[in-house]
Amino acid sequence: MKKIEKAKKFLKENLDLFQCPICQEPFQSVDGNSLVCEEGHNFNISKKGTVHFLTKGVSNEYDTEMLSSRFRIAQAGLFNIMLDEIMEHIEEKNGTTIDIGSGEGSQLDYLSSLGLEGKQIGFDISKDAIALAGSHFTDAFWCVADLAHSPFASKQTDTLLNIFSPSNYQEFKRMLRPNGTLLKIVPDKDYLIELRNVLYRDREEKQSYSNELVVAKFQEHFPESQIYTIRYTFPLTLENYQDLVKMTPLSWGASEEALKYAVAHPLKEITIHVCLLVGKMPG
Ligand SMILES: [Zn+2]
Fold it and tell me: Distance from the CA of 52 to the center of ligand 1, in angstroms?
């Protein structure tokens, strides 16, 4: 089946997962290649089967080169051990899973390869990221959206993934079903530490990182939450390393000199050190 036909079929069968991001009313139908709400707002379904729910342009820092680097290093397995752990905490493997800030789609695709079934939706505010996801991965439905103007209906989601991506807790709680689960990944203090030490070798104050405030905010919204630490080192090929330097937001703040030094001194391994925060909605 063509990607657009597959997306149309998914949307027709799952209209109740969505709401119009303009008026918050339910969607009524898939009409031709458009998704149409009860007020008549309509959103085009692209040839790749993706839907663009943004009502105005949004700029973001991720360019296609960065996204391609992230795609390659994710395919190389940088995040696999972390995602294996996430998979353990997905209770409804046949339910509805939405990846909030899916980026170029690798993480949802890997979970699917581990046996995640059910309805899978990846969304990101970056249209370049969703274009990449839509061209590589066909198991999930991909859309461009902004959490502040959400295209997702209330109480329809079993599992929300929020991996290295900003949160909107009010929105998450609205979207989750009773007993639904929010799985959030935040960096911990030694995340990419080897790279930080190189890129910030002239700026010691930027070498350390604390996730204390982010964790506290999560706990405020999900007081019964559980916290797990995931830590491992990943061996890097030269190509992996070059991609890592390109994809990481850390390199934005590095001086030109430090960046040159980093390129000339490739790392052989990198530490992944993150917190997995697990929040449950009341039943
Ligand atoms: Zn509408």
Answer: 14
How close is the Cα of 157 to the center of ligand 1, in Å? 21
DSSP label of 25: P
Q: In a 10 Å sphere around its CB, with 0-12 CB exposed, 13-18 middle and 19+ buried, how is residue 139 labelled?
A: middle
Q: What is the DSSP string of 138-175?
A: -SSEEEE-BTTB--B-TT-EEEEEEESS---HHHHHHH
What is the Cα–Cα distance from 106 to 263, expressed in whole angstroms? 25
Start-to-end Cα distance in the chain:
39
Give ion ligand 1 contacts, CB < 5 A.
Answer: 20, 22-23, 37, 39, 41
CB 218 within 8 A of CB 184: yes
CA gap 124, 142 in Å, rounded: 8
What is the per-residue burial (b if ≥16 Cβ within 10 Å, else e) of 7-46?
A: bbebbeebbebbbbbbeeeebeebeeeebbbeeebbbebb
pTM value > 0.85:
yes
With both helix axes pointing from N to C terminus, report the angle between 64-75 and 127-136 in degrees, rounded to the nearest 10: 40
In this structure, which topology does domain 50-280 adopt according to CATH? Rossmann fold (3.40.50)
- Spacing, Cα 87 to ligand 1 middle (Å): 35
Give 125-143 pLDDT, tens digit per residue: 999 999 999 999 988 999 9
The pLDDT tens digits for 49-67 are: 999 998 877 666 678 888 9
For residue 132, report the distance from its CA to the centre of ligand 1, in Å: 27
> Where in the chain are the domains?
1-48, 50-280
State both tokens at 34: 């458009």
